[in-house]
Amino acid sequence: MELILSTLINGLSLGGIYAMIALGYTMVYGIAKMLNFAHGDIIMVGGYVIYVFMATKNPLLAVVMAVIFCVLLGIVIEKVAYKPLRGASPLAVLITAIGVSYLLQSLAQIIFGSANKMVTVYDFGSISFLGVTVQVSALVTLACTIVVMLALTLFVKCTRVGRAMIAVSEDKGAAQLMGINVNGIITITFAIGSALAALAGLFYLLKAPTISSTLGAMPGIKAFTAAVIGGIGSIPGAMLGGILLGMVECISYKITAIAPYTDAIEFSILIIILLVRPTGFLGKKRREKV
Amino acid sequence: MAMLEVKDLEVYYGVICALKGISFEVNQGEIVTLIGANGAGKTTTMQSVVGLIPSKAGSVTFDGHDITKTPCHKIVHLGMTQVPEGRRIFQELTVYENLLMGAYSMKDQSGFKNDIDAIYTRFPRLAERRNQIAGTLSGGEQQMLAMGRAIMSHPKLLMLDEPSMGLSPLLVDQVFEIIKDINKDGTTILLVEQNAGKSLAISDRAYVLENGQIVLSGTGKELAASEMVRKAYLGG
Q1: Over the stretch B74-129, which tens digit does the pLDDT of each residue have?
Q2: In terms of CB atoms within 10 Å, which of A22, A62, A94, A243 comes out highest?
Q3: Chain A partners of B95 at a C-beta cutoff of 8 Å?
Q4: Which residues are A134's β-sheet partners?
Q5: Hey, are the CB atoms on B104 and A173 less than 8 Å from each other?
Q6: Predicted pLDDT at A1
Q7: CB hemisphere CA count around A154 (13 angstroms)
Q8: Nearest-neighbour CA in chain B from A7: distance (Å)
């Protein structure tokens, strides 16, 4: 019972982080029709910004600065690297995104060195209830991700800009005929995705207080997997896929016999789901326009 | 002065020349039709005028503004919009949300309630289905929605690209009635149609487009009576 409860909390909390990162992938894919493989590295950049500003001993300031910096970085990357490639072949955009990913990792290594850095953002400690001891940070992460996901869902459904995002993801041309500035919407999408990635960086540091230039690589790939499992382009799909993957990962870690194969299990799930449902759980079949 | 003036417009798809320098104009209050066969360049003309595809040469002036190089969304804010070919309503949004998108360019949202009521009065079917997902509407209903969505932005010039395509004869008549109605309310209309007979009947003036060139122009009546139009577009 205790084991189930603690695994549930840890799984949901990790899943929440994956979901937040996956939202960035899926929104950018839905709206700009590109896979932003540099998205995971924004997490790492967010982590380093927190590291730098923790010199002030003010965790809140550090987090706010990380979000601001990552939002600006996301917008700059889109303008400099991706916007000139609008209309280019998807392969060119994909390779550019991978290039941006390596660029960010290399820059981080040049600036901060290749050794891991320790960053203790805030020590929430742990609490015990019903005989279970859990890290409070896991609960905080879970609560934050729920709030962020609800806020994002409301934003997309109920605001003018949110509806414009749906319109652009469905039909760019028709959206322009409504007077929607498609480039502006793409910029906003990158900004939101980067802000979520910065928060994911914070949650990673709460989970394990070390940072290196590759911090974002594995979570990035996992979250991308989550986005594909949920159905890329679908916001609820990213949330579902993220939570699912987080749960699988935590459960797998708890079972000694299969713990070493956790990553393999997660990616196998991706392969199986893609075989059975090529569009993911909540993805739509793309109707090809004639 | 013409409300819309297109001069020597040339559009290329790669090396293929789709529009070989066409010129036409639409005056305030008119219904003007471009007729032509498949591939004549009608949709290309419409999309180029509204800024969805770039032109290589020529100019487009709308309401005193040179909009040749203006991006589409800014043109819409100037008061021109289009019901695109194939309707292209937002399938995943409800009827109501589609109409809401239509009003996206309105700075002043205070008239929204009245506007949407006016649409529901004009298209009772949309009122019945206001909370339905638009992708589940029939073709005719989708066309009504596409037209309703377009007039939500109070365009000075409304362009309609093949509004009768794929509709039953009864609905086709209805669509042309609605176009006449919208025009009576003061909206200038530029229409592209394969249904030459019906569109010429409601048009003040019309142009015939062939292989990316305008080959004939005149009043709707003149063209409907012309030998060449009768042979090519009215089935003798």
Answers
A1: 999 999 999 999 999 999 899 999 999 999 998 877 889 999 999 999 999 999 99
A2: A22
A3: none
A4: A127
A5: no
A6: 75
A7: 6
A8: 37
Interface list for B 150-189 with A (CB within 8 A): 150, 153
Contact between A179 and B75 (Cβ < 8 Å): no
For residue A185, give how far its alpha carbon lies from the nearest alpha carbon of chain B (Å): 12
* Separation between Cα atoms, residue B111 and residue B116, nearest integer Å: 9
Q: How far apart are CA A91 and CA B186, in angstroms?
A: 48
Q: According to the CATH classification, is domain B4-88+156-233 in 3.40.50.300?
A: yes
The residue ranges of every structural domain in chain B are 4-88+156-233
- Please, which pLDDT band fits residue B231 given cuts at 50, 70 and 90? confident
Among B52, B92, B102, the residue with its CB nearest the CB of A178 is B102
A87 contacts chain B (CB < 8 A): no
User: Rounded distance, CA A109 to CA A48, Å?
Assistant: 11
Q: Is the pLDDT of residue B166 over 80?
A: yes
Per-domain boundaries in chain A: 2-216
| CA–CA gap between residue B212 and residue A6 (Å, rounded) | 70
Q: Which residues of B touch A174 (CB under 8 A)?
A: 84, 88-90
